[in-house]
Amino acid sequence: MKPSPHLERLRLLRPVAGRVAAALLCMGAGVLIQLGFPRAIAYFIDHAAQLQRHGIPPWMILAMLGAALLLATVSALRYYLFQSASQGIVTRLRRQLFDILIRQPIGFFDQHHVGELTSRLQADVMALHESLTVGAANVLRALCLFSGGVAMLLSLSPLLSLPLALFVPASLYIGKRSGTSYRLRAREVQSSLAESGKVAQEHFANVRLVHAFNQQQGASARYRQATARALDAALSNARLLSTFQGTLSLLLYLALLSTLCFGAWLIGQGQLSVGELTAFIIYASMVTESATSLAEFWSSWMRTLGATDRIFDMLRLEARLDDDAQPLALSGRIRFDAVSFRYPQRPAHAALDGVSLSVTAGETVAVVGPSGAGKSTIANLILGHYAPDAGRILYDDLDAAGLGTASIRRQVAVVEQEPSLFSGTIADNIRFAVPERDVAFAEVEAAARRAQAHDFIAAFPNGYETVVGERGMQLSGGQKQRIAIARALLRDPRILILDEATSALDAASETLVQAALDNLMQGRTTMIIAHRLSTIVKADRILVVDQGRICQQGSHAALMREENGPYAELMRHQLAQYGTLTAA
Ligand code: ATP
User: Fold this and answer.
1) Which three-class secondary structure state does DSSP give residue 143?
2) What is the DSSP track for 391-457?
3) Does residue 376 have its Cβ closer than 6 Å to ligand 1?
4) For residues 563, 564, 566 and 567, what is the CA-based torsion angle, rounded to 10 degrees?
5) pLDDT (tens digit, 9 = 90+) per residue, 165-182?
6) Which among 291, 295, 388, 435 would be 20 to 30 A from 459, CA to CA?
7) For 521-557, how does the pLDDT look when each residue is reduced to its tens digit (9 = 90+)?
8) 269 pLDDT higher than 60
């Protein structure tokens, strides 16, 4: 059963309950002092002549100064305690959300755009922060002022309280009515914000492409369009809010005016003193203001519920538990036993259809085939990014389903076509391969040497401490590949997955990368999604994949002998056209 949305959010307060309790104490003390002020004013007005004659007694001056000082102290403390509690909650929530999101299976990221997730982490959580600090603190203060004020009003003149008795329920009712519409619109605002976050993220990430195709204007237009929806929803919320504010303010002044007129009449009747009417009016504005705050809070709370609905949906997602990487002693044998797989996003299409294959330890297998044949899908399944819908994957005759993805991945390293680097130092990027332990610098350097990367790294003024920009922008393609190879070498896996770059490097770079790869592949089972003839020819075995099936396998020479076979056909066709196996 879905828990109550209110309770679910209030539960966030639990870890900071001590702070909140202290803040509430400060608030209570502040409210008591504030409630005393109108009474003091009434006393001064009604005893003006007497005070003028004898002067204000020193204890009274001291008491007033003390009260002012105490009020200032508890106000400052209250503000700080509420703010720090709320910042704590927000940070905790962000971390919790991030922890859950980063542990989602890869299929989740097929469905959710990075920009959307970032926006959820930033903007949606921020909405909660505002509501928890400004909102919760104000509403509690308003509640105290409201109840204290009502008690004071009743003690001064129950009769004069009548006009207010009409105003308060009316304002609370309006607050509740508008709150429901806010919730729906706020959800709309946040989802359009997430959408525009997605557009911005996509264009920034592909800024080179945007410039190369002179698409800056197109990008601006797409961003304008994405933000227009957020603006519409926010404006419609603002219209609702202004109508709500206007109505409340009208009601408020009507209530105060009628109190004033009625009060003047009561003074005429000798039932009230001028000081008492003054105090009454001040209490009345306290009560009406706090009723307005309560009504406003309700609508802002509903806005928050709407804005944070999605993050609570995400918090309910089951985080895939990090299974501990068991130190398996695998030799590197891989077997696919009639494996079929469809991507969750494309259930109608079989990406792999009854694939059976067997790779012996230390073998180098090139996977070739036309684009969309299923080559990367085989790599994705070996890496445990997705589980097969039917059939089994076995490592050294052990079923993958029983081994746990972390243990399997501990034995596998991947070098992507376009290696991704994190913003950070080169050394950190290489160390990324081994999260389980601290890696000594000597190991990093040794891996870089074997990956033919040491010389260019050492030539940088900061060497291994050189910070590579977002996605490693300052490095050339060949340099990034060699860092990725160093990373894989450091991991020292039994199984290696290479997604060969389709874009050609210059001859010198190519030789270095090839030498690094040769070092990396030594003594490991290697699956290469191959694009270069030189790689394919060197492989121990070639798997030809087409439409999710393995249609042929064998060595280059053996496969070429089958002149009418798919491999020979693929070679003839692609080599004649592009000079490489796949059209890059
Ligand atoms: P290429 O050489 O072009 O990279 P490939 O042989 O590696 O192609 P795969 O990436 O394995 O092909 O794709 C096999 C099929 O699965 C294709 O039809 C592709 O459209 C589809 N596909 C791949 N990734 C996904 C995904 N994340 N969600 C849905 N469908 C996908």
Assistant:
1) helix
2) EEEEETTEEHHHH-HHHHHHTEEEE-SS----SEEHHHHHHTT-TTS---HHHHHHHHHHTT-HHHH
3) yes
4) 0
5) 777 777 777 777 777 777
6) 435
7) 888 899 999 877 777 888 899 999 999 899 888 888 8
8) yes
Name which residue leads in pLDDT, 509 or 504.
Answer: 509
pTM exceeds 0.85 for this model: no
Predicted confidence band at 470 (pLDDT cuts at 50, 70, 90)? Answer: low
Closest of 375, 459, 449, 453 to residue 421, by C-alpha: 453
Amino acid in position 159: L
Q: At residue 408, what is the residue type?
A: I
- Tell me how far apart the alpha carbons of residues 351 and 377 are, in angstroms, rounded to a whole number: 7
Cβ of 381 closer than 6 Å to ligand 1, yes or no, is no
What is the enclosing helix (H) or strand (E) of 378? Answer: helix 375-382
- Extract long-range pairs of 349-357: CB within 8 Å, 24+ residues apart: 350/548, 351/377, 351/548, 352/377, 352/378, 352/381, 352/388, 352/548, 352/549, 353/547, 353/548, 353/549, 354/390, 354/391, 354/549, 355/391, 355/548, 355/549, 355/550, 356/391, 356/550, 357/543, 357/550, 357/553
Distance of CA 351 from the midpoint of ligand 1 (Å): 7
| Distance from the alpha carbon of residue 492 to the mean position of ligand 1, in angstroms | 28
Cα(34)–Cα(472) distance, rounded to whole angstroms?
A: 59
Q: Minimal CA–CA distance to 414: which of 347, 481, 467, 368? A: 481
Cβ of 375 closer than 6 Å to ligand 1, yes or no, is yes
Angstrom distance (rounded) from CA 418 to CA 471:
10
Banded pLDDT at 129 (limits 50, 70, 90)? confident
For residues 115-149, one letter each, b for 16 or more C-beta atoms within 10 angstroms of the residue's C-beta and e for the rest, the string is bbbbbbbebbbebbbebbbebbbbbbbbbbbbebb
For residue 402, pLDDT over 70 is answered with yes
Residue 307 in contact with ligand 1 by CB distance below 6 A: no
Query: Is any ligand 1 atom within 6 A of the Cβ of residue 520?
Result: no
Domains within the chain, CATH numbers bracketed: 5-189+241-315 (1.20.1560.10), 323-409+531-584 (3.40.50.300)
Mean pLDDT, residues 379-391 taken together? 90
Nearest protein Cα to ligand 1, atom 23: 377
Q: What's the pLDDT tens digit per position in 187-217?
A: 788 788 888 888 888 888 888 788 877 888 8
Per-residue pLDDT of 332-372, as tens digits, reads 899 999 999 999 888 899 999 999 999 998 899 999 888 88
For 144, what's the count of Cα atoms within 13 Å in the CB-facing half-sphere? 17
Q: Is the pLDDT of residue 321 over 70?
A: no
